């Protein structure tokens, strides 16, 4: 399988501040998705970003495939940004699939 690490694991948002979340993966990826599970339990796809940089409002995502990392930057954070952020990496090797279960 493939390892995916996110840091920091827990982040306390202060309104108006900026934060960067990092995602590192152990094998080359075909695509990276960033998601937010908000306080109501709904999962929202924020970005599909195989490589490069994308911006959507106050959020900016960057993926560097050759360095096997992706980051999500939140600027001028608001209370509505709170929730669980996670990255999902689709790997180029077909046997390296990742399952995401919600309990």
Automatic annotation (TrEMBL):
Organism (species): Bos indicus x Bos taurus (Hybrid cattle)
SUPFAM superfamilies named among the record's database cross-references: Immunoglobulin (SSF48726)
Description of how the protein assembles with itself and partners: Alpha-beta TR is a heterodimer composed of an alpha and beta chain; disulfide-linked. The alpha-beta TR is associated with the transmembrane signaling CD3 coreceptor proteins to form the TR-CD3 (TcR or TCR). The assembly of alpha-beta TR heterodimers with CD3 occurs in the endoplasmic reticulum where a single alpha-beta TR heterodimer associates with one CD3D-CD3E heterodimer, one CD3G-CD3E heterodimer and one CD247 homodimer forming a stable octameric structure. CD3D-CD3E and CD3G-CD3E heterodimers preferentially associate with TR alpha and TR beta chains, respectively.
This protein's name: Ig-like domain-containing protein
Superkingdom to which the source organism belongs: Eukaryota
Keyword Ribosomal protein attached: no
Upper taxonomic lineage: Eukaryota, Metazoa, Chordata, Craniata, Vertebrata
Subcellular location: Cell membrane
Keywords per UniProt: Adaptive immunity, Cell membrane, Disulfide bond, Glycoprotein, Immunity, Membrane, Signal, T cell receptor
Cellular component GO terms held in the UniProt record: T cell receptor complex
Domain Ig-like, chain residue ranges per copy: 2-99
């Amino acid at each position: 399988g493939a390892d995916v690490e996110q840091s920091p694991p827990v982040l306390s948002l202060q309104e108006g501040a900026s934060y960067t979340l990092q995602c590192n993966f152990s094998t080359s990826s075909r695509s990276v998705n960033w998601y937010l599970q908000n306080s109501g339990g709904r999962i929202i796809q924020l970005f599909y970003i195989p490589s490069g940089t994308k911006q959507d409002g106050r959020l900016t995502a960057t993926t560097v495939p050759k360095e096997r990392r992706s980051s999500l930057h939140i600027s001028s954070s608001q209370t509505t940004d709170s929730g669980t952020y996670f990255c999902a990496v689709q790997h180029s090797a077909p046997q390296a699939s990742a399952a995401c279960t919600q309990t």
